[in-house]
Predict the 3D structure of the following.
Amino acid sequence: MINLKKATVIIFIIFSLYISVLAEINFTVSPETGFIDKIYIEGTEAALFDSHSIVIAGETLKLSETEKSENTVYVKMVSDNFEMLTKYTLSDDKILIDSSVKNTSDSKKLVKLSDVFDYNSFFPLISTSKLIDKPGLVHQTEDGALIYYSDEIFRTFNAMNKAVLMAKYTNLDSQSSFDYKRTIYAGKILNSVLKKYMDENSVEYKTYSSTLTFRNGRSTKNTKVYLTDFNGNVYNYLKITENDGEFNFYYPDGQYYFIPYTGYQHYENFNFVSENEIDLPENYIVYEPFLTNVTESSITLNIRTAVTSTVKVYLIENTGKIKIYKSENRDFHEIKLNGLQQDTKYTYKFTIYSDYDDKTFSSEIYSFKTKPITTEKFNFLVYGDTQIYNSVHTAVVKRIKSDIEKKNEDISFILRTGDFTEKGEEEETYTEAFISTKPLATEIPYYTVLGNHEHNNINYYKAFDLPQGGGDYNKRWYSFSYGNAHFVMLDSNVTETNTLYNQQLQWLENDLKNNQDKKYIFVAFHHPFWTSSQEYGAMEENLPAGHFNTKNWLPLFIKYNVDVVFNGHIHAYERYTKDGINFITSGGGGAMLNVNHGAQALPWRVKDFLGILSYVEVNIEENEAKITVHGIMERIDPKNQYDFRNTDIILDEITIH
């Protein structure tokens, strides 16, 4: 790793680079990629992006040489048609990037050069492609702020987890070159970083100072304040108040409001006055605790609070020793409980402290079990499709909980086959869904896939800590292994015209190919290949060819020995058996059940049950996997989704050797 740090007070030489004890910012360039891979603010690595790259459209750049000299790193890259020499220099607490691109071909070439920043493992507080009145990248995370700027930017593109900044297109004659220069400003708070940018680029600005207080007299320490114009457009100048609620803003000329943010859907606009008062909302748990992503040594507890809070988790080991895990000054909390022992049962409780008052929440005592390193015996459950019918889902969860307690068994995890909520863009629907899952989700980790109702919204990614895979935030699709089985979780919403489609397809084949040593392979995604359902008319899935994923995914499932495919979307229980694979649709988690399965049955349809809420239990033994489908509630009136009576029937049984 090539380290660059600014010389300020105490200077000494390491590897011919000047290293400072009191550096405000510094960075590293990866010797494997030749791009910036980390930025440090006040000596601490800041999560500002996951990866940075420089690309030329249509070209494959390969790292050729690297060299360091004082506070500069030189990186040479080559492709079939171009040679690119990039200098990364630390100067006055800025990172200067200068790329010289040479056309090494025998003909004239059009150069389309871009910087690409990926954000896959965190969610910015602020991210925009507008820098005052110019294109650029403006970014604030919990750890720091970044401004990327160049006079030569032609176009910017901001997706949910990616920023692409394109230089002006340039025609280069053979053996001719052009330079592309840009600057990265970084610091703790965007407001201060913006001031540095405006000072150095002769942008006129004003300074505004004020004091923020709550009407109940509580402290406003760590309250986030945003600047917005009168049209409601948020200018991304963020300031966090000091201990006494004082803050200042450096802003270009214009008419603005200020928005203090204390948590979930609570803010008030106020104008330019010396003192401002706002109401403090009551704190409560917006997303009930939800376990995900269990490993041999860790598990994640996901919680969402209404007010920016501190959460402490008390983990009780078998010896009686207590470990404390802490998440501070946030409303979304993904608390990774790490340093655990494999195949071990732990108990835990948590306490939530509001950052603005003395009110606390203390939970009950819950338990969970970590993943064993090796095992040939475990079990898991599968169900899907709850949407907006949370009262019915609550009844399903309570029944599953009761069944587990009667058997006195530990469930390793639960697979959800999509449509966790009704409208993925509305947090209120998530709130109700988390309430209904609480009896199970506080003790059994969930693994989820995207349904069509999640709408691939950022709320889904914020809600769940999931294993790293691919697509948006590296968890639109993913996989994990447990014991002698491998699980592949896909997004069936990605259409063939989407650029991500082939990425997921290639990832799928590579993942299946690399896990052929597992005895069992299970795949889960939302939309089934086939169904008899015609709730909304004839469907592609009524036909032998199935939907668009069938032609691309089914051959891979056959080639790489997939045993079972789990789906949702159809609010019923169906099973198809084809090419040695069982295709199970488990959509009986609570959403409005199907009444019309009028399509002609395909020859490989084995089971089709309507009007029954159900879940799937899978018991893995050394030499067999036994699948049992439990019917738990039967609809009395087909026209009344909420009218059920309890039942206890086995809808299906399958044994896989």
Observations:
- Residues 1-22 have pLDDT under 50 and may be disordered.
